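Technical note accompanying the year-one report. For the benefit of new consortium partners, we illustrate the data format agreed upon in the data management plan: each record pairs a sequence with a structure-token string. No post-processing was applied to the example shown here.
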Amino acid sequence: TSDLYKEKEVRSALQRAVDPAVVLELGYKGLGTTAENHHACPVHPEYAKLDPQTLDKAGVKDVLAKHNLADAEFEFISLDGGFELDTSDAVAAQLRDAGAKIKRTVMPGSTFWNDWQKYPFSSTTWNHRPLAVQNMNYAYTSTGSWNETGMSNPEFDAGMLKALSLADADARREVMVSLETILQDEGYLIQPYWRSLFRHAKEGVTVDMHPSFEHHHYKWSMA
């Protein structure tokens, strides 16, 4: 049940047992950059750089024992193919290495997406949006329409309202420090990496790759 994840200490222990670099290598062949468990990317204008989190695979067993979860089985649900499957398997392997009992459940998209916001522990691909606050507002506010984590943090909600009122990215970045930190501390998400996207062209052809696959033809050229 979702009661397995009601304690922040348990969520944080599972989060910090996962090495993003390992998951990036195994899940996406290293073709990306490691992420920081807060859903803001360096390409976002308001991204704020935080001090790195410390990994602590050794501490998981003690935390689970403290909360009477040493023998608990954590079911981890994912799509059944592609980088989603490989990434989820890599996360599961890391958690098993740390001493957690993980059951893997894989589903075809036709099944997975029916209830994607209801699974206690699952992996979801989030597509790019121009601003970090767009994803964060959907995904982690108590009124977020796509809040699959169930997080409800009044301080985060208040900070998000302030961030959404600031058009200037530099001003918004100051609020993002708090929002990013809350997401890390709450432990609701394990975000291992950002995918790099690629576009191929013949020599002499310049074609920009856009994070949302948009075609900005005014930036394209031929030598």
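Partners are asked to follow this layout when depositing records. DSSP finds eight helices and six strands in the chain.
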